[in-house]
Amino acid sequence: MSIFRLSLPRPVLAGAAFCASALTLFCASLAPAHAADGAYPDGPIRLVVPATAGGTTDVLARVVAQHMSQAWGVAVIVDNRAGAGGVIGASYVVSSKPDGRTVLIAPSAFGVRSALDRKLPYDPLKDLAGVGLMARSPSFLAVSPALKVKSLAELAAYAKAQPEGVSYGSAGMGSTGHLHAAQFAAVYGFAGVHVPYRGTPEALTDVMQNRVQYAFAPGPNALPLARDGRLVLLGATSAAASKFMPGVPVVNQPGMTDFETDDWFGALVPGATPIAVRQKLSAEIARILALPEVRKRLEDVGAEPQSSTPEQFDALLQRYVATIRTLGEEMQIKLE
After folding, report:
1. Considering Cα of 58, then 311, then 314, then 139, what sign does the dihedral take?
2. Positive or negative CA dihedral for 156, 158, 161, 167?
3. pLDDT in tens, 84-110
4. What long-range pairs does 316-320 form, CB within 8 A, spacing at least 24?
5. H helix intervals, the chain
6. What is this structure's pTM?
7. How far apart are CA 318 and CA 111, in angstroms?
């Protein structure tokens, strides 16, 4: 089995301010087809989160919404539309007017679903267009203190000793947590039973109660619970985890070398959205992510702000979908 590594683009932390000169305004008045672009934003903006409240995607959306509303003087609404592994929220954005006022705040699980589900009601690489990367976060392997295991090896030994194996939770079929947990079970050679939930917070609630034995979760979900003693973190998917939780080893035990991929979070809009609108929205998000108070807030919960251009995010998504599709075929994970 091959283990995959996804290289993300280098951070682009400074956002370019958008301003219209008198000449631009004059030209816009002569070209009505482009007037909406120049006026953007000309009304409320809806940030669609395809997951339940309280998760990393939701936290990011609310931070951006607060600062964007203040800067642009328009209402910025966070709209949680969970269900069907993110398909409900993504479908809503796909069917929306391509004017930059309906934005999907997508986790890497969106890319996983795009790769593995061949029956999506939309084409994720054509019907949606990138705005930019927003953040990345290591995932942590979490267990309940009640399980009384203190290392990856102890968890594997415990699982192998159970006649029917152990169960693991995730934010849904085809989520990044599902892939990480299934791969961990396969490499360590024990039976793992997948229990999908509506979101990561719900999965971790059952991990804390030891109803399911482990889960992989992004830092903003896992770290606060671990610091409160309600979860034990046995490993992480990248070395960046040490920045957020010193002492947690990387999941690179024998057989799992290069088990490394951070969860990522980004923004997308309907595919026909003008590039000028995408660029302005991308620049504003980058400006917000570069604010010291925003960086500190996200880093405190285990997410590292990281921005990109729309074109860079489009390219990242294409590479990610291709990589996950190959991994899904190797692990025989199929979504219907």
Report:
1. negative
2. negative
3. 878 999 999 999 999 999 999 999 888
4. 316/8, 316/9, 316/130, 316/133, 316/264, 316/266, 317/111, 317/114, 317/124, 317/125, 317/130, 317/266, 318/125, 319/6, 320/6, 320/108, 320/111, 320/115, 320/264
5. 22-30, 35-39, 56-72, 87-94, 108-116, 152-160, 176-188, 200-208, 219-227, 241-244, 275-290, 292-300, 310-331
6. 0.75
7. 9
